[in-house]
Predict the 3D structure of the following.
Amino acid sequence: MNITIKNLTLSYGKETALNNVSLELDGPKIYGLLGRNGAGKTSLLSIIASFREATSGSITINGEDPFENEHIMQQVAFLYDKNYQDESENIKTILQEIQLYRPNFDMDYANYLCDLFKLDQKKPVKKFSKGKQSALNVTIGLASRAPITIFDEVYLGMDAPSRDLFYKELLKDQEQHPRMIILSTHLVSEMDFLFDEVVILNNGKIFMKDDYETFISRGVTITGKRKIVDKIVENKQQIDRQQLGDTVSVTIYDAISDEERALAIDHGVEISSPTLHQLFIHLTKEEV
Amino acid sequence: MKQTPAFMKVTKGMFSVQFSWTMWFLAIMLGVNILNIIKVIYQGGGVDDYYLSVYIAANIYMFIIGLIAVYFLPHFVDKGVTRKAAFKGTILAAGGLSVVIPILSYVLSAIVTFIVKMIADVNFHIPNLNEVIFKAEGHIIGDLIQIIVLSPYVEPQTSWLISILLFSFNIFIYYVIGLFISVSFYRFGPTIGLGAIGLSVIFLILEDTLLRISLHLPVFKRFAMFENLPYLIAILLTIAVVVLIIGLIRLITKRAPIKI
């Protein structure tokens, strides 16, 4: 599957949620869509899922406009933090209905996931806790096996052990049934190992898109004597700076040369890689 | 293997959900009717037959389920169904329901009347709803309430086919009016939603008057000037108004954003 977005803008009245976004997602990979609250993640995903149209710009999925396109829409599953407080149906009925509309839906797998997350299939969904309702969303998303599966922070209601189960199950099923999975989150630290590629959205714009390893390798944290560190980071894009006495720790989003690396080693300056979580925080903080 | 078109699945789904609600509605109406019959057996007097009771109540019932039907739009889009398929399925299911309700109430009414007449001497009203209209001296609000409560009526004894067709048509109009109002609120919010209610009142008055002219039934005095409209034109206009409302629903939902 291929999603190509060109110059996409979405406005709600005077408010611009997405501003001239261009992006290409391609192939059966797990994409991490990162962004702070209000960055435009859900707006972008809503357009991919044909929940709404953009104000301007274009989006194609496998070369076709997805909006009101029956063939494309049934291949895109969009799971979000749905309000189930009025849902009196039980899980069994809900899953049976989804099976009617999702061509790749696997009921056996859905049953397995219900057991895994301890979901009582005969109980009305509105009686479930928030965490169990989130687990239901995750179950629907995985078992639908849609070629494009979008999870928009559905896992936030789940407790840590359930989230861990989900991550493992996601990787396992992705290996057996590769598809494009988009995981939107602002909880980066515990999910970074899932991502093949990372897209950061900030203030309605694509801040960066890269594969995980390349992105991570662009961040460098240099810690040591202020004088040496400042010499190394001079003229580089500094995204964070901490200081304690004469010791500073500077994170740059830039490359350092071999000479600079040698200089650091000679003076006992430590060079390390920041985590995706740290990079995300520093990069998006700068924009505010 | 050829896949069933999505709109057919929606039709089936919408019909079965709404039919299950309808069974409750018909059962409650039957319960009320039986209680009234028992009361009449002991206290004397007359009682409306089941068909007439449902005829009067079904308008409001269909209006309400039409209002609720908008919540199925996000439900289907959520499953990868297009708005077009959801729209088609919803309208077809409403059509199916509008045919089934009159037939079921006609059959149930015949059974109830048959059983009751075997065990007791009960006088079933055959009221002429149209005469009530005839007598009415209209205030517009009063007229409107009467339009809703007392739809154009042809007794099944006169012609069961016309009666059932008219019943179907009436309740279908109320469903689409309910849906029209709710999709207007859903898409545009309260201001235009309220405007849609106003427009719906006009549609209802128009439909009621045109139907009465088509069936040579008495027309509200307020609209007496239209009485000379040829009935064939009235029939065509009646259908045109329904098509217009359905067209507006499609126009409103065609590109409607799904709220999450």
